[in-house]
Amino acid sequence: MASEQSGSSSGGGGSSSGGGLELGQFLRARRTQTRPEQVGLTVGTGLRRTPGLRREELATLAGISIDYYVRLERGKETRPSPAVLDALARALRLDDTEHQHLRELAARAARYAPEPPPPPSRTVRPHLKLVLETLRPSPAYVISRSMDLLAWNPGGLALYAGLDDWPDTQRNLARYLFLHPTARTLFRDDWDELVRGCVARLRGLAGTAPDAPDLTHLVGELLLKSPDFARLWERYDVIGRKRIQKTFHHPQVGVLTLSSQSMHLDDTPGQRLGVYAAEPGTPDHDAMCLLDLTAPRPGGGTTGRRAGIR
User: Fold this and answer.
1) Other C-beta atoms within 10 Å of 47: how many?
2) Do residues 27 and 99 lie in contact, with contact meaning Cβ atoms separated by under 8 Å?
3) What average pLDDT score do residues 238-267 get?
4) What are the C-alpha distances in Å from 82 to residues 15, 87, 91, 99, 104?
5) 258 pairs with which residues across the strands?
6) What is the predicted pLDDT for the residue at 307?
7) Cα of 95 vs its chain's centroid, Å
8) Could you tell me what percent of the chain has a pLDDT over 70?
9) Which of 273, 267, 266, 264 is nearest to 150 (CA)?
């Protein structure tokens, strides 16, 4: 049986906390989405009122007591041992990403502090803005950890048709996917997959920093305004397939399929650089160049070869 002893000297049963509740929510979401037959259990002919595994079934599979598991799921046990975490991960068939997320949630539950951290800086360094300009005609942008658009080149903003209608402070790629009326048309081929990946990314971030204001404000808004977001948020997926190519049904330049690349930026508060590209000489590349040339200037008109970047 996996050890149920907590990491504290008292042996467990810490008081309920925000960190413990988040850990419990993740376990419950994974439990209710794991079918008995997936883990080798035989399902009888009677009606099962519980979606997925019952608590006692998961506790048995993990080799821990049902009482201890219930405390975990209710957020009342905040210091599970590494052995318990590993046993639960095996029982739930978690992949490496989900297993690591479980460990991070447990670590956070053990050190939970009620004071929210300050929001990360939105400042983009000047040399990164120069990088964006040199990447033209490839659309490129810098986003925050919560997907706020912080800086861009002409195509980087224009690619997301209609995003420039919103004020700078409202330009967020998650908000665009769920709330902008153009998003479903722009991504008509891939919208379902894109939003699942988007929510999984935010879930992963919020799980280890649930009180961070940049995340709580965005998630709260999307939960209130988008039933699709609320449904996916409830699933508590923390992994999502990231598409290497995306097809845009763009109202200005037509249909174009671009390869995408996203990378962490060193020495920044979670900022990422996103870049799209197409093979030179292809219709997709021609459409990408046209988008770059015709993107509106901040003050009106088109960009030419040099454009102001926020």
Assistant:
1) 5
2) no
3) 90
4) 19, 9, 14, 11, 11
5) 246
6) 40
7) 17
8) 85
9) 273
Q: Which DSSP helix (H) or strand (E) runs through 142?
A: strand 140-143
Radius of gyration of the chain from its Cα atoms, rounded to whole angstroms: 23
Give the 3-state secondary structure of residue 5: coil
Contacts with 14 (C-beta within 8 Å, 6 or more apart), sequence order: 6, 8, 20, 76, 77, 78, 79, 109, 110
Rounded CA gap, 151 and 147, in Å?
11
Specify the pLDDT at position 112: 63
Contacting residues for 49 by C-beta, under 8 A, at least 6 apart: none
Q: What angle do CA 186, 188, 189 make, to 5 degrees?
A: 120
d(CA 277, CA 271): 20
Phi/psi for 212 (5° steps) reads -65, 125
- pLDDT bucket at 134, cuts 50 / 70 / 90: very high
pLDDT in tens, 17-60: 566 788 888 999 999 888 888 888 877 666 677 778 888 888 88
249/274 Cα distance (integer angstroms)? 19
| Sign, Cα dihedral of 254, 255, 258, 263 | positive
Cα–Cα distance, 251 to 254 (Å, whole number): 6
